Model the fold of this input.
Amino acid sequence: MNRLTLALDTPDLEQAWWRDWAARQQGYERVAVTALFASMATFALLDRVAFSHTWRDLFVLRAWMLLAMLPAIPAFFGSRATLARWGQPALLWLAVVVFGSLWPIQRTIAFQATPDQLVLTVPALMIGLLALFGASGLRFALAAPVGVLTVLGFGVILWTTPGSTPVLLILAAGGAISGLLVGAVVAWSREAHARMDFVRRRELDRERRRSEALLRNLVPEVLARRLEAGPGPHLDRVEATVVFATVVGYDAERWSPLDAVALLDRVVAAIDGRAVAAGVERIKTVGATVLLVAGVPTPMEDHLERAATLALALRRVVDRIRRSEPDLDLRLRVGLETGVLVGGVVGRNRYAYDVWGDVVNTASRLDSHGEAGRIQVSAATGARLTAAGFRVEPRGEVDIKGKGRMSTAWLEA
Done:
């Protein structure tokens, strides 16, 4: 931030500041501008009492001021975008009209006023300067030149006024300079602190968005919203479908670590894209095996159909990768099972979404006891898939570790 003009470091940041300023100040600026017009009209009426000999000349000057101020009104009573773009030029125009008109008004008063009446112009000037710096909303870089020129013009007029005295000049100089310095310091300090606060709020908001994005990468969207509302555990017990998909032919020992990870990243990225499109959550990747679940944390009635469709699509994806890389003999081996499970986040420091239940273990065993390029399901799940319109072929009984003899089937299409 420029220490003199207070301009922020980049044009985009400066524009963002003025949009924020417009959002905060629009109501205030409308009231302030309305009050300014009302005060100018009131002074036109008071001039007849305070300066009876010159009130007609003063009335003409104040009428000119009001007319000259009118072009600035649309900037304050339009949209926030209009205020952000034109608010400062409009405020500068109002300041130039008001303080520029003080010179002919003061000169009209000065040549027909008594010394006592001239003294009244000093506090009036001080009030005007404080309003310029403290209440107008005009930025410091624009208000400061207006204030300096106003004080200089005020001094020149008093110096050339026949009724002025040394005491009056000293009083006027002290009051005008004091008002200028106090107003300038207050205006600079207020605007500097407001701009620094804006930058800090932007940084905090950016960090908040980064944290939210990171949280949504760690856990599903619906669960991220729950975690933001309060700590867990956040657990759901629902019927869902679990998919274990293992890339067969992926041998990390055949390649350098970088090449092996790059290949795995290519496969998992393709799986992620299909999973997101299907509304299925990828829970984790362990080695060359990917765990996906349909039905948690967002319950869905068609979780089995979604998971089965995704498994078929993933098999085609890996087949395409194999055909595009003749040196790779990659195939996908899948185990799929449906049933009741518990899904959620446990812990407080490192969030990770996971699922538990017998259905998870069964799907894992169906994968590990399956065949490369095929999707193995239990007989019960196969019957449900057949009823849903999928093509399923019985495999027969298979000795599944931890399950004993189990009837399974192949999901073909």
Notes: The chain has a mean pLDDT of 83.
